[in-house]
């Protein structure tokens, strides 16, 4: 029976396990490096059923299952934990059943029913279908109409471009992975998708920081020179991209890593392991401090001032509208991303604790919806932007305005005021 279960070189491993069980010693289960050394010593791996080319973990699992049938299962809990983690993935579930497989090679239907992955596919398709035209149209209208070329809109254009990058480059990878039930693009695709998601998100975050500081300066000194404000915003845009790169690039250069997360059909920074060889702990602390706590603190301090002057009569309506727009954009962004960031920090600060992959996916995919909120909030809050959109669609005319409104809308293209 032993020769049937463990043919060829595997019988050595089986003999070790059987000997230790008979002596009531703690079971010895070799590490992946030991298993790999054994597998490399043979040119061909054969399963217990005679099937060739079985992955090296397969025959190891047969040994584990045989041991579980003949010995106390609690003694091998630590042994099977190693199977849920690989060099480029970590799946937060118990692997005592031997079901866990690499998310780059096998469908992950043991984490959720297939219909859940189908729903995620439809959800991502919806974000792509709505997000691209809405963001692209907002970007085109803002660029075409000169009266919208104000400091606030400079930064809104920057945020819209970041959202478009995420939608066009990153979301198709996620949708395709959800369609297949696992991340079919491999580690290279995971790095690609994770990089652009983090990069676009950080551009939006730091754009809100720069916008909050600009609004703070205007609230302190309402008569500040518009040329100074424009220069400040232009430099601020460069700053947002620099800070985004400082967060998205390190995992590509082995300071932390990008791995599949949740249901394993999207990628993000590794919150799950300390990974000393990649200095993962220091990167997560750096990311949460520099790229979350500091921006949130700066925005909160600036908004404290804005809320004090939002109804101040010394500010014209356009300035007050710009302040309200900035506040709503920031609230929308953090409403989407704080649940995901909080869950990630909980996982990191409670290493080894159980959590639901579905819950992680829920917060992650909800955060992705932020790409729709920026343009929708701008359209809802800014009447001037709505007028410009109607004029663009109707080739220079606003058919929904009355005579007074029509004369006002006709002046839009010649330079009427927009939010400062």
UniProtKB/TrEMBL annotation:
Keywords: Chromophore, Disulfide bond, G-protein coupled receptor, Glycoprotein, Lipoprotein, Membrane, Metal-binding, Phosphoprotein, Photoreceptor protein, Receptor, Retinal protein, Sensory transduction, Signal, Transducer, Transmembrane, Transmembrane helix, Vision, Zinc. It holds the Pfam family 7tm_1. Residues 1-24 form the signal peptide. Glycans are attached at residue 95. Disulfide bonds join 190-267. Its main location: membrane. The lineage of its organism: Eukaryota, Metazoa, Chordata, Craniata, Vertebrata. The modification N6-(retinylidene)lysine is found at residue 368. Zn(2+) binds at residues 281, 351. Belongs to the G-protein coupled receptor 1 family. Opsin subfamily. It comes from Hemibagrus wyckioides. This is Rhodopsin. It is a multi-pass membrane protein. InterPro entries: GPCR_opsins, GPCR_Rhodpsn, GPCR_Rhodpsn_7TM, Opsin, Rhodopsin, Rhodopsin_N. GO terms for biological process: phototransduction; visual perception. It is found in: Membrane. Gene3D superfamilies: Rhodopsin 7-helix transmembrane proteins. GO terms for cellular component: membrane.
